[in-house]
Write a structure and sequence with these properties.
It is a single chain. By secondary structure, this protein is mostly helical. Helices cover about 70% and strands about 5% of the residues. The protein is built from 13 helices and 2 strands. The chain has a two-stranded antiparallel sheet with strand order 1-2. About 40% of the residues are buried. The model has no long low-confidence stretch (mean pLDDT about 90).
């Protein structure tokens, strides 16, 4: 009797998760991905416009570092994006998907603007700024605590809840501006333009330097808080497994509320810095979409506040540089969006190779 021989063919490749990758190798992978992204962008630019790709890249650097003013604007934008990224990081590390940073920043900014509008000419500027700080922190905190309470109490979907809170905050800002500016223009002018009460002071002639210093201090404190404090440890445990956290005696509901309170409070600080230190007014676009961009910054940095400084700068560089391309080379803004998208695609995609390994196998026969 002859035995039938069956052929078993294994897959040519399979994907396995890496235990870890040495930090310098991980950054080498990321650097290589950026190089490949620039090469692809060069090909796309030449194919669509016929421009020398190096001329396009020179325009990107011009838009970011061309003048002293552009440098300070870049530093300011990086600091504000970093501040909001730091705010959402504790919640994300806890696996609480806080998509409501945009609204929390707006509420913090609205609280600051309200203080400037109603009592700006009645109080000394220093006292007014202290009141604005407290009001902004409380406003952002409350806006974050609401979805956190519903999550802790009834396990609601925090993603949808915080997202909807953004739209509520936007409408509140729009309504408030209509009350403050009854002429129907729906545009709030600079608040306290003459007295400048409530404006954060400049340092060494630089009006953004105080913002940068405040964000730098927050960065260091957040790094220490997440890495070395007991509360930071509790956040990590809850993020890994709520059941494990309960088993070792951690009050999960308390951690959720506390962490979101911190997240909302920092968003409130960001709102204060944008209103009192940057724009000196409030609009529904004050946050400028940074609440959503901060999600990518935090994720790319693996929730490491120090690394977030680099990722925040990278995102701002791409945004400002791409805008300069459209202006100086007179190209459609879609070109700058395409280049930004390609670079971000490579940066995000390289994380796959940092976290996973592709193993190739040859097919063989088993008798």
């Amino acid at each position: 009797m002859t035995e039938n021989k069956k052929k078993y063919k294994e897959s040519l490749m399979h994907i396995t998760k890496r235990d870890s990758m040495v930090w310098w190798k991980a950054w080498l992978v990321r650097a290589i991905s950026i190089v490949f992204a620039l090469i692809v962008c060069a090909g796309v630019v030449y194919a669509l416009t016929g421009y020398n790709p190096f001329k396009v890249y020179a325009a990107m650097f011009e838009g970011t570092f061309g003048t002293t003013r552009k440098i300070w604007n870049t530093v300011q934008s990086t600091a504000m994006l970093l501040c909001i990224s730091l705010a959402v990081t504790p919640a994300f590390k806890m696996r609480f998907w806080n998509i409501g940073a945009e609204g929390q920043v707006l509420m913090g900014g609205l609280a600051s603007a309200a203080c400037m509008f109603y009592v700006g000419d009645r109080l000394p500027s220093t006292l007014l700024i202290l009141i604005m700080f407290a009001a902004s922190v409380i406003a952002g905190l409350i806006w974050a605590i609401i979805p956190a309470y519903f999550k802790a109490k009834w396990n609601t979907n925090e993603t949808l809840f915080t997202l909807m809170m953004n739209y509520v905050a936007t409408q509140l800002v729009s309504f408030t501006i209509m009350v403050w500016v009854p002429n129907g223009s729906s545009v709030m002018g600079v608040i306290n333009r003459t007295s400048k009460n409530g404006w954060l002071p400049g340092i060494f002639g630089q009006k953004y330097l105080l913002n940068v210093i405040i964000v730098a201090v927050i960065t260091v404190l957040m790094y220490i808080y997440l890495k070395y404090s007991k509360q930071g440890y509790e956040i990590s445990v809850v993020g890994e497994s709520e059941n494990t956290a309960r088993y070792i005696g951690i009050n999960v509901k308390k951690v959720i509320l506390r962490t979101m309170a911190i997240s909302g409070a920092l968003c409130g600080v960001a709102g204060l810095l944008l209103v009192a230190g940057t724009d000196h007014t409030i609009t529904k676009n004050t946050a400028g979409g940074m609440g959503f961009t901060a999600i990518m910054v935090s994720w790319l940095a693996k929730f490491n506040p120090i690394v977030m400084m680099l990722t925040s700068f990278l995102i701002v560089f791409l945004q400002r540089g791409s805008g300069q391309i459209a202006t100086s080379l007179r190209l459609n803004e879609s070109i700058s969006d395409i280049l930004t998208g390609i670079i971000l695609f490579f940066i995000i995609g390289c994380e796959f190779f940092v976290n996973y390994k592709i193993n190739f196998r040859r097919s063989h026969k088993n008798n």
